[in-house]
């Protein structure tokens, strides 16, 4: 995998930044497009649904992984 890429956004009225591998950002961008929502809206919904003990970066990686797993099940 490549180096981490940092993105900044506003969540719940405050600025935050998240660093992920580019491959995860690609999947998350695709998820937002498929759901016809902005990237910020997608991240806000994933942030709201994550357990409080799970860091946002981990929640985003898990969401991307689950999205890909669902897609592979549909292909088989």
What is the number of domains?
1
Strand order of the largest sheet: 1-2
Number of E-state strands: 2
User: Any idea what the shape is?
Assistant: globular
How much of the sequence is in beta strands?
15-25%
Biggest sheet character: 2 strands, antiparallel
**Intertermini distance:** 26 Å
Q: Average pLDDT, to the nearest integer?
A: 92
Helix content: 55-70%
Give me the Rg, rounded.
12 Å
Residue runs with pLDDT of under 50 for 5 or more positions: none
Question: Mind explaining what this structure looks like?
Answer:
By secondary structure, the chain is an alpha+beta fold. It has one domain. Helices cover 58% and strands 18% of the residues. The chain has three helices and two strands, in the order ββααα. It has helices spanning 22-34, 39-49, 56-75; strands at 5-11, 14-20. The chain has a two-stranded antiparallel sheet with strand order 1-2. Strand 1 and strand 2 (14-20) form a beta hairpin. The radius of gyration is 12 Å and the shape is globular. The model has no long low-confidence stretch (mean pLDDT 92).
